[in-house]
Amino acid sequence: FFLFFVCIFFFLMIRRPPRSTLFPYTTLFRSAKYGAKLHLTTNGTNFSKEILVAVLPLARSISISIDGATELACEAIRLGANLKKLSNNIRLLTRACELLPEINPDIRLAFTVMASNIRDMPELVRLAHVLEVPAIDFYSLIVLFPHVRDEDIKLHKPLYNYYAVKTQKEAKCLSITVNM
């Protein structure tokens, strides 16, 4: 008995650099011939022309996780991160989509708001505008461990509210969609 499964959406989250694992791409390419589309959540650090050529035609949406809009916040929160390299990779992605209008995935930034990066929220809108990313999803940090309790935005509600309003105003001015 052969079980035939057709994917309408294919969700893939790679925790290791894409060059180090072939299984997700093999599965993706096999599913693509049945019309599967990819939702890729990535930290954006390993984009290359080769990966974009392979993945973009299959992508329905691409969400790029980013921890800060300034080098200080981004590189302090995510060890080994380099905001300049990440920004270049994001722009490589958006430029590829501009040059290939038949490929039109929904591209957005994903930003987890915490005490360490609340002040970066409006700056992220400006960065998204420069990188030509049309949307940002803001998520609240869910504190699961006591050592990060101070990062809970519930403890910084007035500061969060101030920057949330500022972020929404900036997004309206720059025509960036924000989801908070």
Give an account of the 3D structure.
The model is unreliable at 1-23 (pLDDT under 50). A six-stranded parallel sheet has the order 1-2-3-4-5-6, covered by helices on one side. Strand 1, helix 1 and strand 2 (37-42) form a beta-alpha-beta unit. The longest helix has 18 residues, at 157-174. The protein has helices spanning 23-32, 49-55, 71-77, 83-99, 121-131, 157-174, and strands spanning 9-13, 37-42, 59-66, 106-113, 135-140, 177-179. By secondary structure, it is an alpha/beta fold.
Strand and helix map with partners:
Layout: E1 9-13, H1 23-32, E2 37-42, H2 49-55, E3 59-66, H3 71-77, H4 83-99, E4 106-113, H5 121-131, E5 135-140, H6 157-174, E6 177-179
Parallel strand pairs: 1-2, 2-3, 3-4, 4-5, 5-6
Helix pairs in contact: 5-6
Total E-strand runs: 6
Low-confidence stretches: 1-23
Compressed to H and E, one letter per element, the order equals EHEHEHHEHEHE
In what range is the share of β-strand residues?
15-25%
Number of helices: 6
Q: What is the mean pLDDT?
A: 82
Gyration radius, rounded: 18 Å
Based on helices, strands and strand pairing, what is the structural class?
Answer: alpha/beta
Query: For the largest beta sheet, what order do the strands appear in spatially?
Result: 1-2-3-4-5-6
Gap between N and C termini? 47 Å
Main beta sheet: 6 strands, parallel
- Helix coverage percent: 25-40%
Shape field: globular
Briefly say what this structure is.
The protein has 180 residues and is an alpha/beta fold. The protein contains six helices and six strands; from the N terminus they run βαβαβααβαβαβ.
